[in-house]
Each structure stands twice: as structure tokens, then as C-alpha cells.
Amino acid sequence: MSLLRVESAHVRFNGNVVVALPDVSVVAGERLLVTGPNGAGKTTLLRVLAMLIRAEGRFEAEVAPRDVALLPQRPYLFETTACKNVALALASRGLPGTERRRRAEEALARVGASHLLRRRPPELSAGELQRVALARALAIRPRVLLLDEPLGPLDPAGVDRVRAILADASIEAVVLTAPGPDLLRGDVTRVVTLTTSASARTAAE
Q: pTM of the prediction?
């Protein structure tokens, strides 16, 4: 089943087409890797799939926006503890405070960041910030998880945790971006390669 689909779509800015998007269908069970150089439109594609920006053309979503989580390249954390940052993702879910905290602690443990529970953003390294932001995305238990170049600031243990997330059957689909396919080629089901000319080549793995 197709959870998200983009077809014959593009994004405009000030009336001009700035990115022509590839035809992409994200199906249940898929682990999709989108690669390409800077400026090819990888981040824009994820933001369209996350329903944060609109594209002209065909876009279909069989999942609600609340069931899609996006981890950006440079995640923003509020000036509070890591645990409260993660729990904030659940604020609109109608959960009591104790349940929000429990799920926040569970998500931090899932990414190996339990020791950061009471730390604040200025006390965190780039890799630790990424882990807390990833825990925040996982805390909502998304059906579709979108990861924008998640491997950059992570150490080898962090890379292993991203691989574990790709293998987690409780997440229906994962789409992630990277400059090249080499590191995660064996962990994904399909690779889409973008070029700066906005053409796309899809390779089944």
C-alpha cells in the first residue's frame, strides 16, 4: 500500500520553479534512501512528504500529518532538558504528563541517550543533539519516519542505532537522505538518486 506519493510535482519560490521533484511512492514496509549532491532537492522532497510545504502537481497521503515525523539536518531543541524536549512532541496528543514523560524516557533509551535525560542543549555535542532530536521523532510512534542526512554528526554507535531503526518493523516506512548510497545500501530496500538537473534515477536494491 502506498502511504505517500509524489508525481509530476515541483516547488515554486517567488513564482519560479526551484525544484522539480522525482516521482516517488513510499509504500508500507519500505526503507527508501534518497541520494544526490547538495542542491538536488533531497531536503525539499522530505519536507513535501512531511506535508510541511506544498508542491504543485500530484501528492497523495494515506497517512495523517500527525503520523509522519521528520528529523531535519539541523534539529532545533528548546532551552530545557532533553527529556522535556522529547516530551513536548507529545503535548498535542492528549496524554497525561506522566505518560508523556514515560514515553520520552523510553525514546531516549531507544537511541542510547538515557544519560542525557537532564542535560540541556548547550551541554550537548552535535551527535548528542541529533540523538535527542531522533528520540523526539520516535516518541510520537510515527507510521512514516523521514530522516534528513542523519548520519553526519553521529559516531559509529549512532550509525548502528539508525540501522536498528531501519530494521524496526513497528515503523511502517522510513525515508532517509544521504550524499551517497554506500554506507546504508545494504540496509534499504530501494535507492532514488537525484541530480542537480532535477532528473531522478530509481534503482531497485
A: 0.89
Under DSSP, is residue 103 helix (H, G, I), strand (E, B) or coil?
Answer: helix
Cα 154–Cα 157–Cα 160 angle in degrees, nearest 5: 95
The pLDDT profile of the chain, 205 residues, written as one tens digit per residue, is 789 999 998 888 777 777 888 899 999 999 999 998 888 889 999 999 999 999 999 999 999 999 999 999 888 999 999 999 999 999 888 899 999 999 999 999 999 999 999 999 999 998 899 899 999 999 999 999 999 988 776 677 778 888 888 999 999 999 999 887 777 788 899 999 887 644 444 433 3
* Domains and their CATH numbers in the chain: 1-63+143-205 (3.40.50.300), 78-141 (no CATH)
How far apart (Å, rounded) are the C-alpha atoms in residues 192 and 9?
16
Report the b/e string of 157-180 with b at 16+ CB within 10 A.
ebeebbeebbeeeebbbbbbbbee
